[in-house]
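haha ok so turns out i had the wrong file open the whole time. this is the CORRECT one, sorry everyone. sequence first:
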Amino acid sequence: MAVFKPFKGVSPASDTVEAVAAPPYDVVNTKEAAELAAGNPLSFLRVSRPEIELPPETDIHSEAVYAKAAENYARLKSAAPLKQDDAARIYVYSLVMDGRVQTGLVGAASTADYNANVIKKHEKTRKEKEDDRMAHILATRSHTGPVFLTYRDKPAVNAIVESIMKEAPKFDFTAPDGITHRLWAPDAETSEKLAAEFADIPEMYIADGHHRAAAASRVAAELAADNPEHTGEEDYNFFLAVAFPASQLRILPYNRVVKDLNGLPKQEFMAAVENAEFAVKKTNSPSPEAVGDVRMYIDGEWFAIKSQAPLPDDPADSLDVSVLQTRFLAPVLGIDDPRTSHRIDFIGGIRGTGELERLVDSGDAAVAFSMWPVTVDSLMAISDNDGIMPPKSTWFEPKLRDGLVCHDF
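then structure:
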């Protein structure tokens, strides 16, 4: 059963939270982070993307970067200020995007649960990215960015959350991207009730943040090995997470653009689509209408393409992104490993199909594929099957903000 426990969160003051809160480290690059943090000494990007304060030639994985993260985190604790809560709590975090409300819980998840697959995964991690997050966690002695979890709805949890949200929130602000963020800090008794309800939830699922979770597990193992009095209850055995009931989640498509046609003239390329057992039909609509429906943009035209081959039994292999990869991107376009290929890019659905048209029309890409989004049910089914989803399969919106609550240890 899942452990999701209260913790003493580290949060900014209510009058500075809007200045502190920042997008997650992995949705902005160094240049974008610098632009967002410009003129704002309290931006949490100075902790999550500390290279923005170092010379441009600095290796973003150098010790200097992690030292700067620790330095800036300590500075923010004084300047914002960031203060640790007086009691352990499970916080309620609500985001509003285009009128749609998504509400979850901020708590401490267990690395033991992660190791035992009570917290289930659907993505392979890369050691260099784990190393980066591990170094950041050890330098700051904090989990500053949450792992995004989901679980199957439990009415008793929903009822407690609804009662908490009748009170005034601790934080209530709208970020520059138009997303409203609200955070409640329930009392310790209510937080323990929430933790007790999670004790009956058999599993949770990583929606986003596989590398943060893997790094947290490695940090716990390293510190446990160095602690002769290790009990398993130390704060380093738990990591910052936001857990949403599955019904609250919204997954957007993760679209694909390929930079070239692998040497094929357009006519041969189109023939190759049909030879790969895809039915091809010209369309004016860039957005798929159902599972199995993929839209392709090339040379100023949209086409609906649908695989005619039988679907594999494995739920991961039967995803649209998997079928496209195995039946076309790899054998025809030569994209054998989309994790490492420099010829393919992935475009989050929040940017719309207009971005796909722009990239192809500008010559930055030769062909684009507009995908139907993966469902939460599919994500959980694949995780239950110990399956691995293709890279860049899911794009979650709205994005959680860093800096609202941190988990020090």
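The chain has 13 helices and 21 strands.
again sry for the mixup
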